[in-house]
Amino acid sequence: MTVSEVRVDPSAHQEVRQGAAAGLRHQPIGELVLETGVAIPEVVLGYESWGQLNADASNAVLVQHALTGSSHAVQADSAEPGWWDGLVGPGKAIDTDELFVVCINMVGGCYGSTGPSSLAPDGEPWGSRFPYLTLRDSVRAEARLADALGISQWRAVIGGSMGGARALEWAVTFPDRVGTAVVIAACAASSAEQIALAQAQVLAIRQDPDYRGGDYYSEAAPISGLGLARRIAHISYRSETELADRFGRTAQPGEHPVSAERSTEAWRQRYQVESYLDHKAAKLAQIFDANSYVTLTEALMSHDVGRGRGGLAEALAAAAGVRFVLAAVTTDRLYLPAQTLELAEAMPQSTEVHWIESDIGHDGFLTETAQIGALLEAEGL
Amino acid sequence: MTVSEVRVDPSAHQEVRQGAAAGLRHQPIGELVLETGVAIPEVVLGYESWGQLNADASNAVLVQHALTGSSHAVQADSAEPGWWDGLVGPGKAIDTDELFVVCINMVGGCYGSTGPSSLAPDGEPWGSRFPYLTLRDSVRAEARLADALGISQWRAVIGGSMGGARALEWAVTFPDRVGTAVVIAACAASSAEQIALAQAQVLAIRQDPDYRGGDYYSEAAPISGLGLARRIAHISYRSETELADRFGRTAQPGEHPVSAERSTEAWRQRYQVESYLDHKAAKLAQIFDANSYVTLTEALMSHDVGRGRGGLAEALAAAAGVRFVLAAVTTDRLYLPAQTLELAEAMPQSTEVHWIESDIGHDGFLTETAQIGALLEAEGL
């Protein structure tokens, strides 16, 4: 299926989001004044939770999603699999028989929290008016949800990729509220390369004429641009070896890329890896909101835990009392293992980097749940 | 300068091409029947040459350009610098006092050879009607130009990146016509990852509404799409370290990426690495034709020297009499050093891989002319 074959109903985002998260709850947290000074009134955070909070609220764990992730980390009794089912659940490494696990949709997202597709106070979607925000803004919003839930300290804040960056920001912003921060496949600051790749993704969306500057909710969604952004991102999520081993130069069955034949769109026929990326693109474009993709990607570009805090070492000094568990995927070429090592070396407390052995690349933080689970058990979480 | 500030006159491509190549000559080579069976009538190849062909035509060297390169490898007495001035010229490693050096614009390109922006027999630009072609087609076209010049054997065929792939194809297609093949920062076959990155670039152009399926020559050129393609490509041409060392997270002077301020396009303000990529994008979009970018990128996707020849080892066996000089850039993450090693190992003749030491990444084949020159001199070219 090519992305151009996908026809998305303008209202589909909302429907899919509602369908995917049967256990989704909403917590109003009031006005959120952002780092930039801009205020978003009446912010709501969508979240899910599993397990029971104990009497002294000492068993709460916050699981942080990555860029296009949702609050749906665990399937539980919903229809939709969770993105970390291998790690979180009854009897799992993050054991919901003992722990109260919370996963919050990031502000700016499209899975239940206030974001560009939400209605602004005037009753129209925010669209292009939704303000620029940072990962720090999201962490401060989440602290208010923790307040509402009666959680003064998380036993652990755990995440991979952007979720790892958010776990790190939690530890540095609220060191008294984080027992252990588990930071997987993430780094201290988005690098020049990460910014460059993010820019290409954001431009892919903004240059789609259906984007209309962000005000497309009553029209066709910019699925071509969002699909291209996803392709660019997904290549960076997988290792060269993984793509070579899975696809090589094989043609998509029934197609002949080295031929005069063209597809129905008058484009050249495809290699299998192209069809794979077309599928990834179409899948995301059906369920994700392009404005949220832009908002969260730009928030990730802002990530620099030392920014405005006197640099990395000084920022980390504030979190000297937090226990850190750091892990990197051996073949990650987006969040380089060297970046996790740099983060570890900058910490005042002695912190080891654990290795997630995987050929898959960055996405190992999603797929290698057995290794991550074993690590968390060894660390006594 | 952001890409959206660039205003390209529809006729600018042709003007720039004419201006850049004062020494450009044109050689008609007749009808070219492509690998697909499709024929292009009345093909013309644009080329430049430096030095004098000797009496027995034994001093001819073919220099092959990369994806967006032109025939203008050497500045000589033109106004425009050549892309390999450090390597080719009087007294240089490829010494035009002794050698007759030829550089041919690839068929499908936009620097003087028949391509999508050329006029078809009906007097209109080929546009969307220009056929899909392969690197092998380009090599067979170039052999006809060699015939016309009276060159039965090149002393050497030399190229980097796509130029290296074309040098390899020359050696395997016409082993009796190549003394030495110098293959730099290239591989035996475009990998799944290279295909994936190429697809993203091609889609960036095809999804630009100004592309109009390829028939845009009487309208505005699809500069936004071409610029995005260039950004995606350029990130892959440079190493993570190079981008980190040059730009880090520095903001573009006068801009504030972490702020509520927006640029004139109502987009977020930029990091320096974004401005750098904007500049690269605008520069290419002003001088290159989007259809040629698609045509040459798809030709590069077709690259597989073993395709239809019984596999790599059998294909290379045909070129057992050719001397090969292989070189890889140590930090190349697009044409991985491992791929050059694989190519060397598949050769029947003993072939060493030489290392171009550079922090820059793939583009080392363009920038490290001193090392390449020393290698060629050591090899006695």
TrEMBL record, chains A, B:
Gene3D superfamilies: 1.10.1740.110, alpha/beta hydrolase. NCBIfam families: homoserO_Ac_trn, PRK00175.1. Belongs to the AB hydrolase superfamily. MetX family. Pathway: Amino-acid biosynthesis; L-methionine biosynthesis via de novo pathway; O-acetyl-L-homoserine from L-homoserine: step 1/1. It catalyses: L-homoserine + acetyl-CoA = O-acetyl-L-homoserine + CoA. Keywords: Acyltransferase, Amino-acid biosynthesis, Cytoplasm, Methionine biosynthesis, Transferase. This is Homoserine O-acetyltransferase. The active site is at S161 (nucleophile), D332, H362. One of its GO terms (cellular component) is cytoplasm. Transfers an acetyl group from acetyl-CoA to L-homoserine, forming acetyl-L-homoserine. Its main location: cytoplasm. GO terms for molecular function: homoserine O-acetyltransferase activity. It comes from the Bacteria. It is found in: Cytoplasm. Homodimer.
